[in-house]
């Protein structure tokens, strides 16, 4: 261009920022100044909206001061407060706020939102109460923000007070406020109130629908979440990446996998297949359904992988038994990805545990703090202790337990307990069982394992004494659950019960199959010993 005015420069800077090219945008700003074109208020507001590094933000702040615009333009100053809030620099945000000659409601909203984003919920509420002492009335964004603060704090009482204020101000029908209140009730375990408010609304939009879908999913009401999602599609609400992510996460617990494939097709149709949040949810869904190859294909096609993408892939491979591939992905992450976090290392140690990779596991555990700057936590200690116990290295496992900065929990002692039985160390079994009894008096695990150890050695009196002691206590038993999807029906097995209409027929078929297996000589005698016939005949 032979001549470039401020609009030309602004357009170029905005284009660079929109494409994520921050350095190019800042370089263009410098060229603009060198060319003698003075940045306008719009130029600086663009920069403040897109900046993602504290250093860049402070440079722009300095430019505002040098140009003398910081005291003249309340919009720019509000953008500064918002920028510092996004970056978590609350001291700078408050510094700008306190030096403002003129405030407006956006100034207060930006400060309250900054406190909220930085994780200082109580401080955000304090600013809201302070604003209420001034002549400024809260608007819909103020109300929705402080209700969101109460949601994160799970403070239902304060949330209800603000909701009452919202009704007084006439914002109860506003979709932004309504969606925040629905989210508040849901997070405070008042799903019924969320549903009631949702049904009483005269008009719904995508924001309200998303909040209700999220509430249903968070409380395990997967069918309701899917029905509402289908209804929103019929009402021509275009799903956002948030909507699709919530739906994908919720159907992970609900077979059959065909529903996930249908949502995947909708993701492609909506153009969100490259969105990291949606892609991560897709990978998690396919991994939980056992279709880990589909998850790997999505991971390979991702142009930009964040740490959540790497962690999702590592955990998905581990939980599907692809432990060698897990270690390969981890090595690739260390070479070219972001620094691993505690979730990454927990997934890798779990893979080492499943694959019995003792040397690799010990090496990774020993390098956690030194190489990656991560202090081992419960899940890391549990993995390495179980790995060593399964390898028969009791001394090493006990040594690690003694070096823990806090007392080991029952999960870690449980690993040692199981291993001591397998390797025939009765004295260790007795000591560890007593320790678990102290930690969890109502757990049945130490009694059952100890009774089994005595039974293996023919010590019937000791076994009877342990069983009698167990029966005298109040025992908490964790019940497992299996789901089987056949066509459009979901069958749930829990605690030897089939929770659906017609369960007796399935057990009759199972008994016929067992009889046929006996005739063919395929029946496992060990299974028969644990009472398979009695288990089926009760139905």
TrEMBL record:
PPR repeats lie at residues 5-39, 104-138, 205-239, 306-340. It comes from the Eukaryota. One of its GO terms (molecular function) is RNA binding. Keywords: Repeat. InterPro entries: E_motif (IPR046848), PPR_At4g14850-like_plant (IPR046960), PPR_rpt (IPR002885). GO terms for biological process: RNA modification. NCBIfam families: PPR (TIGR00756). This is Chlororespiratory reduction 21. It comes from Carya illinoinensis (Pecan).
């Amino acid at each position: 261009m032979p001549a470039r005015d401020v609009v030309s420069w602004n357009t170029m800077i905005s284009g660079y920022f929109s494409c994520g090219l921050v350095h190019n945008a800042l370089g263009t700003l410098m060229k603009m100044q060198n060319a003698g074109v003075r940045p306008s208020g719009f130029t600086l507001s663009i920069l403040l909206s897109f900046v993602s590094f504290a250093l860049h933000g402070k440079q722009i702040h300095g430019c505002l001061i040098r140009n003398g615009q910081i005291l003249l333009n309340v919009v720019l100053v509000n953008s500064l407060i918002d920028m510092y809030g996004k970056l978590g620099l609350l001291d700078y945000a408050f510094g700008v706020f306190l030096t403002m000659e003129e405030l407006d409601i956006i100034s207060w909203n930006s400060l309250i939102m900054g406190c909220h984003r930085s994780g200082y919920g109580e401080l955000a509420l304090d600013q809201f109460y302070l604003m209420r002492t001034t002549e400024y009335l809260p608007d819909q964004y103020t109300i929705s923000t402080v209700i969101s603060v109460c949601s994160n704090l799970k403070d239902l009482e304060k949330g209800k007070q603000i909701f009452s204020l919202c009704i007084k101000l006439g914002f109860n029908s506003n979709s932004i406020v309504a969606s925040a209140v629905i989210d508040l009730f849901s997070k405070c375990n008042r799903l019924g109130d969320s549903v009631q408010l949702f049904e009483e609304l005269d008009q719904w939009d995508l924001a309200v629908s998303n909040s209700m879908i999220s509430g249903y999913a968070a409380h395990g009401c997967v069918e309701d979440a899917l029905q509402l999602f289908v209804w929103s599609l019929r009402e021509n609400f275009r799903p956002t990446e948030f909507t699709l992510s919530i739906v994908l996460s919720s159907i992970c617990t609900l077979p059959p996998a065909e529903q996930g494939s249908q949502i995947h097709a909708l993701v492609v149709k909506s153009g969100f297949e490259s969105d990291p949040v949606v892609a991560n949810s897709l990978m998690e869904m396919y991994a939980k359904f056992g279709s880990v190859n589909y998850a790997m294909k999505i991971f390979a096609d991702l142009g930009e992988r964040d740490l959540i993408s790497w962690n999702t892939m590592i955990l998905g491979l581990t939980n599907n038994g692809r432990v060698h591939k897990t270690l390969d992905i981890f090595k690739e992450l260390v070479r070219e990805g972001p620094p691993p976090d505690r979730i990454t290392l927990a997934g890798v140690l779990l893979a080492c545990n499943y694959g019995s990779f003792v040397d690799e596991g010990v090496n990774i555990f020993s390098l956690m703090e030194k190489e990656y700057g991560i202090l081992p936590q419960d899940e890391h200690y549990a993995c390495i202790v179980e790995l060593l116990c399964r390898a028969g290295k009791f001394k090493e496992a006990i040594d690690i337990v003694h070096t823990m900065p806090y007392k080991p929990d029952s999960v870690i002692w449980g690993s040692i307990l199981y291993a001591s039985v397998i390797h025939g160390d009765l004295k260790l079994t007795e000591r560890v069982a007593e320790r678990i009894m102290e930690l969890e008096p109502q757990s049945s695990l130490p009694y059952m394992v100890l009774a089994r150890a005595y039974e293996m050695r023919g010590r019937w009196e000791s076994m009877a004494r342990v069983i009698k002691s167990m029966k005298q206590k109040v025992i908490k038993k964790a019940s497992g659950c299996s789901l089987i999807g056949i066509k459009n029906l979901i069958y749930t097995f829990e605690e030897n019960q089939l929770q659906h209409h017609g369960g007796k027929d399935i057990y009759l078929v199972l008994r016929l199959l067992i009889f046929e297996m006996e005739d063919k000589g395929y029946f496992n005698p060990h299974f028969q010993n644990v009472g398979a016939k009695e288990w089926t005949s009760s139905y």
